[in-house]
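To assess whether the prediction recovers the assembly geometry, we first specified each molecular entity separately, as shown.
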Amino acid sequence: MKIYNTYTNKLETFIPNNEGKLNIYVCGPTVNKKTHIGHMYPAVFFDTLVRYFRYKGYQVTYASNFTDVDDKIIQTAIEQNITEKEVADKYEKYYLNDLSSLNCIPVDYRPRVTEYIDEIIDFINLLITTNHAYKNGDDVYFDINSIDNYGSLSNQKTENLDYGNRIEIDTNKKNPYDFVLWKSTDQGIKWQAPFGEGRPGWHTECVVMINKIFNGKIDIHGGGIDLVFPHHENEIAQQQAAYNNNLASYWMHNGHIKLDGEKMSKSIGNVITVKELLNTYTPNTIRLSMLKNHYRAPLNISADVLEESKTIDNKILSAIKQTNLYINVNNLTVINIKDKTFEEYMDDDFNTSLVIAYLLDTIKNINISLRNNNTNEILKLYSIMTLIINILGLTYDIKQITNEDKEIYNLWNTCKASKDYTNADIYRKQLEERNII
RNA sequence: GGAGCCGUAGCCAAGCGGUAAGGCAUAGGUCUGCAACACCUUGAUCGCCGGUUCAAAUCCGGCCGGCUCCUCCA
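The predicted structure of the complete assembly is given in tokenized form:
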């Protein structure tokens, strides 16, 4: 199995840290606003990835966090005169709702920053005592020059970064790219620490949570492409400083979603939420739109793309209904199988685009086999189809066909054969109402 | 200024050294009591120019055109 590792910029053979086990962590959202479709892209992709690893027999532990402390949350809390927790709770619910509406399996761990404050303080203390962090003013900073190879993930040399041109230089820092570990604050939620009253910076939480939950190095660390620098770079730096190892064996990043060719942003006003999309499109359609192209490439969402996915979704649904009916009417038994072609595509850095092409090919063959009454072929293809849709996380209401259903079906056929079309249409309507055809 | 990505038929998209998968749309046809579904047929030499090679969409160089990151960001 090959996975593209952002750390080396290469396609690498996947080797788990412990055979048969897999620890994976994906950066979750900061819960300071309504989540949009872009937040769902990594969620849907990594959900598919985890489903696949489990199918392959790995015992997967999957964690994804909520950043429930940050300046914007504090700001919102002050403005609305509610607590930070109330702000975070509201948007956590919103996000979790979106996840389940897109059929994402709940993660095994959903850590929050506020639940790890003690561990974060201990961790920062460790960095201070080992001279990787320093206090200046009221804040604590990480000293990027205290480790070798800062910039190894993003391939950045700090002297080339466009620092002063973009934001004001903080004179408290030894190096402009030193980052805040602990921020002293005079407003909003704060905690007491040996180095002062304040709140943790953004980059420390993930490192601390990962070490606590997984007890050290993980296999895969994922997130959006925008997190490569500085967030993931800084996670790597802290782990290096504290424990002298790499945080993760494989770093995976998904491309961003664009809307009608434009970057989604508040200023353009083209941010679209899952709820809004669900007014017009089904969860399957949205997942298909996301999985139709490669996860690392940017994904452009447009009406054309969604309509096309909708057509694919209907094709799948139609094939499932017909096959399910055929199997039940003929009292056949479906067996779960593994499929080599499918695995070959998934093993190639999760080429879901090829998987969907293969799905469509399978469906075409199902339709041909149904016409030819080729029972063996139908059973085999049906198994492949259901395997793929399960791992892509698509859901279809596969009806249990009852004896009554079968009876109506037989009556329909009998009426058609005797050219009694009035009654045939009645039975057809009943079958449609029962969601069978 | 630095790091990196992308440019394949009307649209979406795979392929990443051996001679262009697939889907949507279009057009024509088949099946069919009527519908629906389905099936068959239907199109590109891969942004431009040069180089390497027996062989390039695939490697190298230049150019043009989009884009991302370097500040919070999935």
